[in-house]
Amino acid sequence: MKTKLLLMLSLLAFTATAQTSEEVKTMFGNGKPNLGYFISPSCQFGEIAGSTSVLPGIGAGVIFNGNLSLSVNYKFSINENTPISESDDRLYLHSQFAGLKGEYSFWPEKVVHLNFFIEAGAGEIELDLKDSYELEHVTIPAGDAWFAFFEPGLAVEMNVWKYIKFSLTGAYSFVGDVTYRNLTEKDIKGFTFSGVIKVGLF
Prior knowledge:
Blueprint: H1 2-23, E1 35-39, E2 42-48, E3 51-64, E4 68-76, E5 91-106, E6 112-129, E7 145-161, E8 164-175, E9 179-180, E10 183-184, E11 190-201
Antiparallel strand pairs: 1-3, 1-11, 2-3, 2-11, 3-4, 4-5, 5-6, 6-7, 7-8, 8-11, 9-10
C-alpha cells in the first residue's frame, strides 16, 4: 500500500513539474536573451553658463530582448557662446560629455512607445578662442574643469522602420561640484532636450 501511494505521489509531482516548467517566464525569456546592437547619433539642447548650447553626439550599444539597452555615448558643444561672467567676448566655453546610458522601453512592439533612461559619466568645460579671432594674439586662460554628471529622463520613441528608431527626450542633468573661474555647478546643471536616431538590429 505504501509503495503504491509513493508511486502515485511521485507521478503527480513529475506531472506538475513538467507542466510548470513549460509556463515559467523570466526577464530574459527562455534563458537565451535576444541580443541586438545599434548606433545612435543625437543632438542635445540645454543651457550652459547662461546660453543655449547645442551638443551633437554619437553612441553605440547593445539591446536585450528589444527593451533593455546599454550604451556608451559622447557629445560636445558646437556653438561659440561666451559665458555672461566673461568680459572678453573673443572667448567661448567649450564643453564635452562622455557617459554610460541604461534605457528600458515600455511596449517596444508598438509604433510609438515610452522609454525611461539614466545616463551617468564625466564632463569637461574650458575656455577657447572663437574661430573668427584665430589670427589675433589672444591669451587663452589656462586650465579646465572636470565633473561628474547624472541624467535621468524620459523618451517618446517611434519605430520608423525595422532597423531605425527615432525619439525625442527630456531629462534633467545633475552635476557634481564645479569650480572654474566664475562658473559653478549651478551654471551647468539643468533640463536638456534631445533628438536621437537609433540604427541597428533590434
